[in-house]
Automatic annotation (TrEMBL):
Residues 22-82 form the HTH tetR-type domain. It comes from Sphingobium lactosutens DS20. It comes from the Bacteria. Transmembrane segments: none annotated. Pfam families: TetR_N. This is HTH tetR-type domain-containing protein. Residues 45-64 bind DNA. InterPro entries: Homeodomain-like_sf (IPR009057), HTH_TetR (IPR001647), Tet_transcr_reg_TetR-rel_C_sf (IPR036271). GO terms for molecular function: DNA binding. Keywords: DNA-binding, Transcription, Transcription regulation. PANTHER family: HTH-TYPE TRANSCRIPTIONAL REGULATOR YJDC, TRANSCRIPTIONAL REGULATORY PROTEIN.
Amino acid sequence: MSSAASTMQTEVAAAPRGRPRTFDREVALRKAMTLFWTKGFEATSMQDLVGTMGINSPSIYAAYGSKEDLFREAVALYADAEGGATLRALTGDLSARAAIEVLLKENVKLFTGSDRPRGCLIVLGAGNVADDHAAIQMFLRGRRREISEAFIRRLTRAVKDGELPEETEVEALAALCVTFLNGLSIQATDGVSRDVLIKAVDRLMAIWPQAASLRSVSKRPA
């Protein structure tokens, strides 16, 4: 077996006649990711993971660590493979307005895909997590904070480049974008159609000039 092939496989038990039984670690991890994405962390049992990943619980613990460790790795895979559109758009060469429109619409497509669970794993994965798993809540909160900070950096650059007015309240505008993005995930999970969510993005972008001047709007006399 080549070194490349060996890195993709993990020995899980001794098969008959002394031959090691192996499984594809990345394939099994992707199956776990989809399960967590569908059910969330708390509702996913070890029995669920065994059935979905096709390996026994000792093998899961040996390959990935605890359920919490497996979840963290699944979220990292999601962020790299499924959720990367957000950070790619915010760090690219598009204008701030174009980047945010692209990332919102790309996430709508992700959240409503017919070949995957609806919504966002990072937004929905920690629903109803018990207090003894507070570290998972903190972990996902940290992931969401990374996204918020990426919006802030992009909008700050837009102000410096003259795309947005100097008086733009960058943190407030970033919070608006993140709130909208997270809301798209929840709406998709509730069954709202892709067409409706795309139209919602269009409505948000139609008010972008006003949204970029939150301070002046908030100071208008009643």
